[in-house]
Amino acid sequence: MKMVMGYVAGLLFGLGLAISGMTDPARVLGFLDIAGAWDPTLMFVLGGAVVTSFVGYRLVFKQNAPLFGERFQLPTKQDLDSKLLGGAALFGIGWGLSGYCPGPAIASIGGISLPLAAMLVTMVIGWFAAQRLSR
Prior knowledge:
Number of helices: 6
Keywords: Membrane, Transmembrane, Transmembrane helix
Distance between the termini: 34 Å
Number of strands: 0
Pfam families: DUF6691 (PF20398)
Order of helices and strands: HHHHHH
Shape: globular
Strand content: under 5%
Oligomer: single chain
Organism: Vreelandella azerica
Helix content: 55-70%
Transmembrane segments: 41-61, 82-100, 106-130
Protein name: YeeE/YedE family protein
């Protein structure tokens, strides 16, 4: 059941990205183009995600345990370090250059293009680099 719920959550996430237009890198790049043809769509999508998460966490934490698991899996590390800041910077640079972040990139695989393929390849290289650096 846990795997089914993971699939349902991923499907809902992918559908949300597609319906909101966030699988189109031009929308993301339009949001980052403040001095040009600025597109505020991403701000509303992110705002909706923040509100949903805020309400969802309040409801979930009233429960003793998750519905389909033994315990809640929450991050324990709360300090900022160079790995976190460096990773966030690389993520932002990659997102700004390509217009894709990992979720929309994977949701867009059906319409693969050269920029998308380049982003996916560099993302995989980044995963391997992160594993090596964390040892």
